[in-house]
Design a protein that fits this description.
By secondary structure, the protein is α+β, with helices and mostly antiparallel strands. It contains 1 helix and 4 strands; from the N terminus they run αββββ. It has one helix at residues 13-27; strands spanning 32-35, 44-48, 51-61, 64-71. The longest helix has 15 residues, at 13-27. It is elongated. The termini are far apart.
Length: 86
């Protein structure tokens, strides 16, 4: 029998607040804001102030709940690459 497929469910306001508190404490930044998803099955958006930094997903696998933070870094937001030495 194949393993159970993880299910995605809409996050409650309480869950979002708990994860937001955890991220703020763990990452040392009170500007982290989690915006709830509009519909079940969608990911929440993670903001740093007004800047979008990634998505938060809630998964349930065999009755265990986990949250995955996917941080998005656009190449255009990176500092210039250092020049090669000769």
């Amino acid at each position: 029998m194949p393993p159970a497929k993880p299910t995605v469910a809409k996050m409650t306001e309480t869950e979002i607040a708990r994860v937001q508190t955890y991220l703020r404490k763990t990452l040392g930044n009170d500007r982290i804001i989690i915006q709830p998803p509009e519909k079940a099955g969608q990911s929440a958006e993670v903001m740093l102030g007004d800047e979008f930094v990634g998505t938060l997903h809630r998964d349930v696998d065999e009755g265990e709940v986990s949250y995955a933070l996917h941080v998005v870094i656009l190449e255009e937001d990176l500092p210039a690459a250092p020049t090669a030495r000769r």
